[in-house]
Amino acid sequence: MRFIVAVGAALAGLSMGGGATAAGQTHTRSQYGATTAAVVDSKGNMQVPADYRTRYQMLGTWAIAADKGAGAKEMHVVYASPGTIGAYRKTGHFPDGTVLVKEVFKTNTKPMTTGTVSSASTLDGWFVMVKDDVGRFPTNKLWGDGWGWAWFAASDARKTTSTDFRKGCQSCHVPAKASDWIYTDGYPPLRR
Fold this sequence. Notes:
This protein is α+β, with helices and mostly antiparallel strands. The protein is built from 5 helices and 6 strands. Helix content is 18%, strand content 30%.
């Protein structure tokens, strides 16, 4: 409970109209609001939002091919914080404070009447990204290049195992650098 109160109080100062950022800029609650406050604390530490499956919008699913044989070895299901899809379709950019949550599942692959089918089975973990247009956490190694980046093992949605976004997260996103580090081509709801 103290964590939630501390997060709310700390981010209230950031999210109200007169809050100063690390860059000396101000922003309003609508730019970095309540949804983000449930994910990021005052030091930039992130957690998986508890309600993402019911409140967030589903962007799409990725199947990662098996190393050998048919089927997929992983399935990635990606969600975006409320309002992200509409804002992206309008501007072509992720708005400041956008939260993306990727569930990573191990799979079961078996023959079915439709052919060889892989389905999500055991949750391996989550990858969370939070859009940061103003550089709010310049000393936190999980923030940079316009995003907060963090991996969470399935055993703990509140504590990341990531230590440096450049070493543990960003390398997978290099091919998507031109689209703000996000593989937008794989998300049909973002298409205008």
